[in-house]
């Protein structure tokens, strides 16, 4: 507000400067107008005397007066042209009106062949002088300072009085030259006398006491009295107040002209004093206003600087805490809080305590309160994250406990079923026991799914020897329903590292079960494998189902490539969740692609780090190859990394497998044929109903093969541990 008021004051002072400069210009123009009127009055009076005498007298003086008139008129014109736009314009001086009228009048007066009437000349000059002096009123009204305007009006009144004295001088001089005046001239003389008296009365009303005293002290003396005496005497004689017999001249025309001129000069002297005083006063006031403007401007600038400094200090006192609060808030939002949440999410077991750096701002103002409130929000967010982590840990612990209990019960159930199978002789009851054994195995796998959902590794002892890939596939088949629909093609002689055995079996079981569930009950599911570049083994599970729409296929592959945290959707699509997380544990990759011409192919890419290649002389191989490898694996150091294939590592692993000699589609085998020693892959499966005895026989062979494999694996592990203890 102070700055606004100061600005308004400076603006008002600047306007006052402009007003006083305009007043100075008006005062100078008024002085020039008065000088022009004085010069015109002299030219008029001298022209009248010359016309009365009808002689070419006073030529030099008239020429000088006309030159003075032209000079004064030129100065006014130049000053008017240099005035700014909107400056007052004098109608009498616009368009050189006075100059044109003078040229015409002078030409008429100077004609010698046709004498110009004196009264006409006086009247013509009087009109020009009246129009010029009338412009003083316009100038007075344009002055902004009331005191200066009043003084200018008093100066204008003296100009009118001077004009009346000049006209009296001309008329009396004409009367003294001719000895008489015509009625019009007498009327003009009386009017001039009245105008002089009125102008002086108006002057005394407007003038201040000092100016009136100066007038009274200046316009006095013998010449003034003499001119007044002559005028009164002549007037009385003209109106018949004196004796007509008195023929003595009233006065000498030259004496009258000199006395009247002296009176006019005295009046003009007073007017010049007023004009000089006006100029001095206007200049002093302009100087004062300029000083005021400079002082106000300096004070305003100083005030603005102080205001700017105070504003800057206040702003910095606000912005610094705000910047600190902003940087802290951004740091908390982008780094600190996500880091704490990530630590809490990745922590195993109960979440550990997290030390939070407080968001502290000095002071007790609103910004500091906002900082403390933000710290409270940060603390609450961390507390909620810790509670969520604790809730997840509790939920995972409950899932693990339930899954472990379920596994224990299922394991006891399997042991009981195996005992019943070993003593059962009835084929029908044995078949039912096999089915029950199979269902219990599936239940155990679903319990392991809960462990995966809880983020726990449910694999068993990691010190077992590597197992053949064929045994891994067979173990996966034992955990799915409808395994008789699965055809296992030619598999490479690869062994899977012990650390990934259980999870790979689980992963393959999920893929096989998904293929069986999504395909027709009479169609077949084919399993094949090949080794591509960099020693990566690609296991393919091909079904002949209706396939998966492209947009769903892309979404599934995205979720397989980037496992998501457990949520409600994970419980609805447990297989997809388990496959993604199990593959991520061992850097495996799972991808689905459309089959040809129909169905879906699930690709499992096993990295070279998890694969071993078994080498032995060709004559020492016995059937079935994987079981012989397993038996000799614990006694010989024959496990080596799997050599890479010469084929390109492309996304279409099926084409690579076909290039390596696996016939597309994968070969179809008779279920259970590979379980018999010496059997070869191949052979179709008749679509006719098999007899129960044949089915039971195959199931019995399959289960016995599994038991033998498990027993041999346990014995090999026990033997290796015993040898290790003996060496120690």
UniProtKB/TrEMBL annotation:
Membrane-spanning residues: none
MF-aspect GO terms: protein histidine kinase activity
Chemical reaction(s) catalysed: ATP + protein L-histidine = ADP + protein N-phospho-L-histidine
Low complexity biased stretches: 719-728
EC number per UniProt: 2.7.13.3
InterPro entries for this protein: 2C_sensor_his_kinase (IPR050980), HATPase_C_sf (IPR036890), HATPase_dom (IPR003594), His_kinase_dom (IPR005467), Nitrate/nitrite_sensing (IPR013587)
Keywords recorded for this protein, A-Z: Kinase, Phosphoprotein, Transferase, Two-component regulatory system
GO BP terms, alphabetized: phosphorelay signal transduction system
Enzyme class: transferase
CDD domains to which the protein is assigned, alphabetical: HATPase
Gene3D superfamilies according to UniProt: 6.10.340.10, Histidine kinase-like ATPase, C-terminal domain
SUPFAM superfamilies in the cross-refs: ATPase domain of HSP90 chaperone/DNA topoisomerase II/histidine kinase (SSF55874)
Residue span of region Disordered: 634-728
Bias (Basic residues): 707-717
Residues covered by the Histidine kinase domain: 506-610
Protein name: histidine kinase
Lineage: Bacteria, Bacillati, Actinomycetota, Actinomycetes, Kitasatosporales
